Amino acid sequence: MQTTSKIGNNSRSMRLIFGLILISFHSYGTIRSVEAFSTVVHTHMTSFRMQSEKENIETKHVQLYNRLSTTENIPRVEISKLKASMSNTNHDEQILLKEKIEKMKSYASNISRHRKQQDPHTNHINIDFSVNEYDRSSSIERKHNDLSDTSTYPAIKSLLHSIRADIDILAKCSTVPDDYFDKNVWYEFRSYFNRAIIQAIRASSDNGDYVMIRKIVESAVEYANQIARVSNEVKENGYDQDLVLLESRIFGEAITEMGKTSAGHSKLKKMWSIFMSLDDSILATPPSAFELNSMITALANRGKVKSVINLCREVTGKDGDADCKIKSDIYTASALLNMLAESISTTNISIIRSIDNTKKSSLDSPCWQWNEAVSILKEFEKEMTLNNQVYSLMLKVNEEAMDLCRSSGSFKHPATKNAMSILDRMKKFKVSPDVVTCNAVLSTFNKGKQWKAAIAFLRAMERSQTEVKGDSGKEWDLPCPNIYIYSSVISACAKSGEYEEAMKLLDEIRSKTELPDENIELNTWIYNSALAACVPMKKNHDEDKQCQHEAAQDILRRMELDVGLGLNTKPDTITYNTLLLTINSAAKFRGQKSIQVESQGENVKEQMVIEVLRTMDDKQIPKDVATYRNAIIACRGEPQSSLRMLTLALKEINEIEIDLSEWGSLDNVKAYLLNSSLNICQESGDMETMTKVFHLFVVNKVTADTQSMLNLVKGLSASGNCEDSMKVLNSMKGDGAANEEIVTKYGIDILSLGFDTFNQMIEEKHYSAAIAGCLRDGQLFPALKILNAMKIHGLKPKSDSLQGIIMAYCKLATEDAKMEFRVARKNYGKSKPKGPVFHADHTTSKERASAALAMMKSMDNIPSRLQCAVASACAATGMWVEAREILWSLHIAAIKEKKREKFVFDVDENEKGSALADLPKLHRSLLKLCARSGNVTAALSYVDAIQDLQRKLDKGIYHIDDAPSGDITFTNKTNILDSWNVTDYSDVQQQKYGGIGMDGEKWKLLIIAASKSAHWRVCVGTLPFIQPYVEAIHPSNASKDKGKGTSMRTLNREYEKLSRALTAAVLSFEVRGQYAWAIRAIDDWIQWGGRRPAKEAVISTCRILAKRGIGSEVVSLVNKVIQVPDHLRSRRRSSVLTYETSYEMAVYTETITALYNRGLYDQADELYVSAISKGFLPFSIVEESSTMPEFKIDLHGMNKAIAHSAVRVSLQHFVQSKTIDELERDVIIITGKGNKSERTLRPVLRPEVQRMLTEEFYPPMSTVSIRNNLGALRIPVSDVNSWIKHQEEAKGLRFLAVADVLKTLTSGQKLQRMLKRNMKRFPTEETESK
């Protein structure tokens, strides 16, 4: 009976189902969602067959009603009948868990089947994260209204309806059927429930509906909460099993699929918050790395890099929190590093910042993403053993950082060093790199042009294979190099100009192909890679470009040779296209050995191009558009040749392989080639050839485009006709009169090219190019005229174009200011006024700087680099207040950047700037301009602002002060020095790249500004600030190991740069007569630097002391300085000492001159004796012989001061070197004829010596000329003896002491040796006359 009843119930259900189908078909003619409805029927029939004894037909009716009520186009009347028939069903008993298992099975299979049948490309929403979240939400809502058209939507809605129905039932109950506590049944239900939820989430993602995903997850969480509540209540009845429903994977799937939609990061974070708020009564499995990785990927795709890093460290406990909720895995590390690499590739260069000195290490970089990647790598290495994928991504971050820093041009990223460090870490943790990792390392070497490192790495890979064969238990080794590895090494050699090494590697590969054990084979691809590296760059020298072309030809010959050997190295179209690009710069070298074909008008470049094209025809190698485009470019600098190549290309246009799917039409190809030729013409400014090219537009019925007109505008500027740019612009707008003028002058009919009043095709870039050309030619008025016309016609310059205009104004203002400064300095030298400072008239340059400032203020979101340029232009023209205002705004931007960097991780792209990167250069520029003009007031103001910014950034103070006052004044310029702190730095590299704060170079510029304005107190107060930087380059800090650490040569170079500060300070002391401070500065500088102070500073100090009459201090100072070891001597290259090359000769000469000018003859003589005793000044006595019976004093090459001391000391030497007290012969003084004087045969020394002997020697000594020798004077012996006798009586012991020194130095054989040595070192009269 039970079986019969069961069959009867089933029969009634079957009749009801088919009845509904017939009614629906009869009422509507068709079923809108036939597949969905048939699926319901199929699922219902299947559940009947699998129904257990405890199941009843009433429960099946409920299931059928739930499904049909969510299926569209089923008549509501029939569903109402079904509901009425079910009203007699007993609802007191809940649906058994096994029944729900079948429901979840049907939902999961139903949704999965429809997802496979549905085309994901038709329903998926295009994601655009550039729009705001509101707009994306609106688009989703609009899409959500149309989701009923998809086949998965009814099934998803049915699943949600079923879950809501169960939630309502559970909410009214305090117990559940007993089978809920059957572990096997419960685990089966949980598995199919989670599977159905996941399928519904994925289907919603296919439709781009993140709102539906959120509803599904929220319903599942609420359902799990109700079951957990009932489970807790029935525990009291003896059940000890917790009914935990949800698996953590649901949230991972939800976040992953939401990431594929246009959901904003706030929606993702909300889903993550729901997930993290659940406990183990809801989640059957704890949170895992899968959910974390899903969140990382989703947020990374939205550019929330620092949010991801912060979230990861928070949930994994890497932020110091011991409560670790999720354990990360290797994929987590991979996702984080890949995110950092992708963020670098899309990063604006402006966010590069300089390295913090206090955190600098061997792996630090200006790129913060790299520094963050290093930190992440170290954290994961402590927890697990990483794989090659992680380290490859680390190398990718390194490479992207190198590209970014290289693009900035101001910062350096140690990419090669970092790549080797990564390999060292892999070896440390015993992770053997694979070929992909090694190729990433070589890619870094390739971009960095580290060809030696690339070859060394290749050899290490080859050696590793030999070692592996001998040691099978080796824990770390390198893979066997393949063809891609060899290609990377060849490319690195070629880019570095090491073409011989590249050829050797090619030969090596050829030899390996003959070995049976080597799986390496040469092909066209590897040869083309080597050829691509032979394309010359703009920065290459001409000789390098010639070598590159020769290497390319050699590679081509090798390819053809290998073809004969049976290798797959046949040159193809790419091969010859690349070869064409190497012709341009190499042609002129070949032209020196070739004869031009004058009859055809061809030059060397054209001959070489034709040879390549002819070779392609002979070998039947197809040509493409790039072939003729490269042929035209190869004739750069020769517009006529490029025109002939263009004509040839248009003639053979139908024979070229053209992919119309890429180009659209044949006319687009023609326009591309025509514009390539126009580009060559505009670079050369050849308007005649450009006219012929435009004529080809008309002949070939090709419409010119905006690029064609841009080339025309640039060509006018290059030809010096920038004033006609306005006419071209008007012609492009349909102005017939302007067009007639262009036709008359150049023969170019713009209106016939497709431009008229209705089809103007004029863009902002045309105006900007015209303005830039006018400014480049110094035509300011036409530039302003074009700018006004641009505004009248409603065209607003784009940000980039306006920046270019402003930069051009700044350049003009700076150049004019420089010329005005030179004129002022020249006039200052002519008038010889008193005072160290002169002022330039900046009227013209100030107008241009003011115009640039006004245009900059009209912009929004002004880039910091542009502000720096305007600030420098203002300072160069004397607009110090305006420059300080811009500096203050940049300091505010820097503080905001630093604050966002520390506290805010999701920074709007529009708010990102580069103030931290651009400020160091601006600070140096402003202080340099202050030093040039001698404006110490402005310099102090700028330094005060710099010090304040550095203090705030170091201490983390992000308070923004009020704007500075409108003027720059200091009542006491030394008071401001007291508010600054002297910072001790010990690393010279930190001083050089010390960021935005003050460094040694900037302190030097402040001292120079103070020196020029004679503010000696500012110099005194500033010297302590430069002390740490001088101490850092002490010789003791030089590395003794070659190639390691800082070399002595580098330290000496830095010392010479900073020595200018001491010279400037001492010069200011000289102006103010502060000799005590000058001596103190010299002594301190010797102690700080461990080297001799600058000779200019020593000479200036000696002048101060001589002026004060303190000759003994002069002698003491000179002796002290000379005793200091000369660490700069190694840089001298001249073997003969001169005033310019010898530090000692310059100091002695100028010091003796200063003493002589002040009448301190005794001290001058003492220094002269010291100088000749050490060989730094020539000894004036010529050795007497049988042919020269007289005593001779040679004064060649001496000034009057040295000559004065030379005569005095020499006369006394005659007495001391003889056994008699008086001379017996006349003294001959050789002065020279004046052949090397400024005015030939107008001697300076001869009359000066005569005057000196008469006026400055007592008793006076007379002189007579020597017959037939105008370059010598004779002093009678009687006058000489009288002078010597008077000196002995008057000066007594002091003069005799000097004479004793001479006697000791020059007695006997020692005197002879010294004289011979001096005669060889210093040229004699005969050698000079020659």
UniProtKB/TrEMBL annotation:
Q: Where are the PPR repeats?
A: 434-468, 482-516, 763-797
SUPFAM superfamilies per UniProt: SMR domain-like
UniProt keyword terms in alphabetical order: Repeat
According to its UniProt record, what is one Pfam family this protein matches? Answer: Smr
Query: Is the keyword Lipid metabolism in the record?
Result: no
Query: Which residue ranges does the record assign to the Smr domain?
Result: 1193-1278
Concerning InterPro entries, the annotation shows: PPR_rpt, Smr_dom, Smr_dom_sf, TPR-like_helical_dom_sf
**Matching NCBIfam families, A to Z?**
PPR (TIGR00756)
Q: Under which name does UniProt file this protein?
A: Smr domain-containing protein
| Origin species | Chaetoceros tenuissimus
